[in-house]
Amino acid sequence: MAEQARRNAPAVHLEPDGDRPFVFSTETKDRFLRTCEWAVEVCQLGIGRDVWFRELQALFGHVNAWATANAKFVRACFAAPRDDQIAIYVIPQAGRFDFKLSDLMTVLDFELSEKFQACPCDVLQVSPTFLEGVDGQPEDRRPVQVYGNEVTTQRPVAT
Question: Is CB count within 10 Å lower at the N or C end of the chain?
């Protein structure tokens, strides 16, 4: 089906200011900053905005399920727009860098890249102090909580 959509999609050309960012908003008022270049790529793949948001919600659900299954190692997970992809931030239970968690995250990163191609992402292990200074970021760049009971000003987006 995606192949047919690609064949039937009209040609889309990128203007010189294609790296200009713009904001996508979900029904739950979560906002994500993306580039025009990304939008062109999505159009060329024949993927609509609704499909992208469904895939994003499914990606959040997958991360939540992964974190639940690895709760021994994962304290919380957050997602935020970063450049032209979604950053998945993982806070370890250990309170410091966890090498075992790093190995588990490598597998997760691979799974996400295979299953959610319309939502490129990067999985990063971060310190528990990661949330400090979040309130100083522009609202459309703030991380949203995907897993855990972390104290934050953001509401959970996936269960």
Answer: N
Produce one character per residue of 88-104: b if its CB has 16 or more CB atoms within 10 Å, e if not: bbbbbeeeeebeebeeb
Q: According to DSSP H, which parts of the chain are helical? A: 2-8, 36-45, 49-69, 99-115
Distance CA 69, CA 77 (A): 13
| Other Cβ atoms closer than 10 A to 135 | 11
Please give the C-alpha separations between residue 24 and each of 37, 56, 115, 124, in angstroms, as whole numbers.
14, 12, 21, 23
Question: Is the backbone of residue 95 left (phi > 0), alpha (psi -120 to 50) or beta?
Answer: left
Which pair of structure tokens corresponds to residue 157?
A: 């987006």
Residue type, 40: V
Q: Dihedrals φ, ψ of 73, to 5°?
A: -110, -20
The ranges of the chain with pLDDT < 50 are: 1-14, 152-159
| pLDDT given at position 159 | 43
pLDDT per position as a tens digit, 69-93:
999 999 999 998 887 789 999 999 9
